[in-house]
Amino acid sequence: MTSYQQSAAGQGSQAGGGHRVEEKTLKTEQLQVERKMFYFALKENPRGRFLRITEDVNGRRDHIIVPAPGLEGFAKIIASLAKEAQQGQAPPSAPPSPPPQPSA
Question: Which distant-in-sequence residues (6+ apart) come within 8 Å of 5 by Cβ?
Fold first, then answer.
């Protein structure tokens, strides 16, 4: 278990007022992209469910939290932007074909 997974499994986080809010981790996933590690934690607290996305680059962590009611819209925007990003990239090139042989 990574240090992030250990902390994600914790049962609380600091709220803006400094008091501890109990939260339950429902599911976690992770994804490595180049030198960045992304952690996705679906959590629940008394205010509802939310997705915490953590980006870890060499120990520096940044987080965003998306409330559950916004996840569908968030996913649609990510999918649209991913599709747009793919359009500007050339497909992977195939190995060169051998030159045609002269006919006899």
Answer: 28, 30, 39
